[in-house]
TrEMBL record:
This is Zinc finger A20 and AN1 domain-containing stress-associated protein 8. Keywords: Metal-binding, Zinc, Zinc-finger. May be involved in environmental stress response. Residues 12-46 form the A20-type domain. PROSITE patterns: ZF_A20, ZF_AN1. GO terms for molecular function: DNA binding; zinc ion binding. It comes from the Eukaryota. Residues 114-160 form the AN1-type domain.
Length: 179
């Protein structure tokens, strides 16, 4: 039984604390780090290598071998009369093609600013996520959510009749020849 071959020989000086001072014990096989700190170090080194190679690929203009063309961003002077200009948005895993208009980005920003906090259409109480959308299209709190508690212009009777007519079509029997 030789412990030298397997590397299980205990150290004569005792256990060594991790060099990152995390409180765990390290070993010489992991550069005097605990297993978690050593694994984190290896992951950081691999990510640094991948980042360096991807930056090098972008700078050199070569793709990653998948046959995709790199997306190049730049500025273009476009007159205001132009309407359909595609804008490429690059995310971590997806590339989206969105149509853009000359004033489209301004309209989107203004719509979000005007929306503000969700409020009941009757009492103007803030409802947040607990608000209820009525069929008339307005947002209401818990006490005004029903059609009899607010002036709802939606015609429930006609909607119910249409739904029943669509769900239960009229079945007519074929006329029989009389003998």
């Amino acid at each position: 039984m030789e412990h030298d071959e397997t590397g299980c020989q205990p150290h004569p000086e005792g256990p060594i604390l991790c060099i990152n001072n995390c409180g765990f014990f390290g070993s010489a096989a992991t550069m005097n780090m605990c297993s978690k700190c050593h694994k984190d170090l290896v992951l950081k080194q691999e990510q640094a290598k991948l980042a360096a190679s991807s930056i090098e690929n972008i700078v050199n203009g070569s793709s990653s071998g998948s046959g995709k063309q790199p997306v190049v961003a730049g500025t273009v002077d476009v007159p205001v009369d132009s309407v359909d200009v595609p804008v490429y948005l690059v995310e971590a895993k997806a590339i989206a093609l969105l149509p853009s208009h000359a004033s489209g980005s301004v309209e989107i920003g203004e719509a979000k600013a005007e929306e503000g906090p969700n409020r009941c259409n009757t009492c103007k109480k803030r409802v947040g996520l607990t608000g209820f959308k009525c069929r008339c299209g307005n947002l209401f709190c818990g006490s005004h959510r029903y059609s009899d508690k607010h002036d709802c212009p939606f015609d429930y009777r006609t909607a119910a009749r249409d739904a029943l007519a669509k769900a239960n079509p009229v079945v007519k029997a074929e006329k029989l020849d009389k003998i």
